[in-house]
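#onboarding

Welcome to the new folks! Below is a worked example of what a typical request in this channel looks like: someone posts a single protein sequence, and someone else replies with the predicted structure as tokens. Don't worry about understanding the tokens yet, we'll cover that in week two.

Example request:
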Amino acid sequence: MSKDFNSLVSVITPVYNRQDYLTEMIESVISQSYTNWELLLIDDGSADNSWKIMQSYAAFDNRIKVLKRPSNRLKGGNAARNFGFENCLGIYVNWFDSDDKMHPNFIERKTKSFTVNSELDIVFSKTIKTNFNEIIVYDKRLKPSENLLEEYILKKISWYLPDGLFSKSYLDNKLLFDENLLAGQDRDFYIRLLCVEKPRIEILEFYGTFYRIHTASISQKIYRNGNYKMQLTHYMSLINQVGILKQYNYLNIDLKKHYAYEISKRLPAVIKAQNSVSDYFSFLFGLSTFNLHTIKIWAKVMFSYISFIFFGKGERFLK
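Example response:
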């Protein structure tokens, strides 16, 4: 399929109980200066009025398509994202979250880059964090890098899932979102892409996403609400990442240190979820090298583990 400035862009959005934010998100797509888009809203089993809101907009604008995640697919945003991709028709694909908003030129600015350079695989815009009433920060972590994979893993550079507009041909025949994960899915997705096939990218100095911070966000559920089920799936995501890095010979000493530290913080989730602690220790040992950094990690982990055995808690040792 040929690419030109008027090529169809597919925006794919999973929706789960987002009645308070969904209208503004959809309106921000309708208000785009670029008009040749389709918005696929994938309901993930909402129990509020989200489905009615989606249907009302679909009746108003035939560019909006509403689908339900099939019952034979695992519940969660990943299955909804994959299902949306399987049903989209665009030359370009942009996943977007149901509680965020687009700048009016979000699609146009990114699509223009593809028309200038048809060899591009991903065009990134940047993100503004907001809490509804005011801008909190212009996120400046996304920047050019000669070592994109390693610096992304080490969080020296970073971006959000809605930031990337993809050439659909680049994504075809690739494993997209791991449907077994409840958290860490964005990083898992991007790390696999960067390992398997280095994409040709462009980073725009343009803030196109308004990322809204609120108490119902996934990050709040993982870290601030003590959701150990979510933290456990984040642990599984880290294990997956290590596996793919080993497979493609990217797992160097610096990355081992990084993953050893990140995995050490997941011990409480492993214990509380009654997962295999011996497997946890075995995996952590496989990332260990004899240096001061590793000794400190193991000291914290062992103090935490002993504290859990005797007192039923020990998170403070892992900070």
